[in-house]
Amino acid sequence: LVRLDTSDLTWPEALEGYRVFASYDGGLWQRVGATVSDEGTLDWEHPEGVGSARYALWEPYPPARRKRLLARMRRAHGCAVSTLARSVDGQAIALVTVGGGPKVLWVTARQHPGEVMAEWFAEGFLERLADTRDHGARALRARATVLVVPCVNVDGASRGHHRVNAAGVDLNRAWLAADEADSPEVLGLLEAMEEAGADGYLDVHGDERSARAVASRSEG
Predict the structure, then answer these.
(1) Hey, what's the torsion of the CAs at 114, 112, 184, 198, to 10 degrees?
(2) Count of alpha carbons within 13 Å of 160, Cβ hemisphere only?
(3) Cα 92-98-99 angle, rounded to 5 deg
(4) Nearest of 201, 160, 200, 167 to residue 185 by alpha carbon
(5) Percent of the chain residues past pLDDT 90, beyond the cut
(6) Tens digit of pLDDT for each residue in 113-163?
């Protein structure tokens, strides 16, 4: 039995119906059932006869995979990769530009680093958008310039944080007061949006209980 202390969670409702991600070979990931005990622990069974395993909130999206994705985008027709800004830790925040149409559309993912499913979405979105054989993608590229940030919170992703960056800031809450010292990721996004314009903006998030990424609509 594996037991994880979750008594200090700020959002314990996230564990209702939650299933842990498990890998027993370091490659294939699957979900296993878990229960919340009266003592505030998340419990699940480690398979009998399995020597070691990796468990995660969601199937990890490793930096090496992001590097390979960006390399493919650099080679893809009609795509360009640039550095949007530098994070608190000095890491490059990648911006992928696809198409050249008059409309300007922005897509950002993983402001909350624990929402790994958002970056998986960004990979799939970019792969389809860069596919020159896809009629829908070709039509979109002709009508719009699409700017995609696959991982906004690169520091949080590297450090294993769930919601904050290296300065302890929730980037999703920093848009009204972005600062070079503690939220340069959002400040860089705002400056780039002001320069390029924005006819549409899709901010991709995720939920541990859902099998899908979700798009956050404007609440203004």
Answers:
(1) 140
(2) 2
(3) 150
(4) 167
(5) 82
(6) 999 999 999 999 999 999 999 999 999 999 999 999 999 999 999 999 999
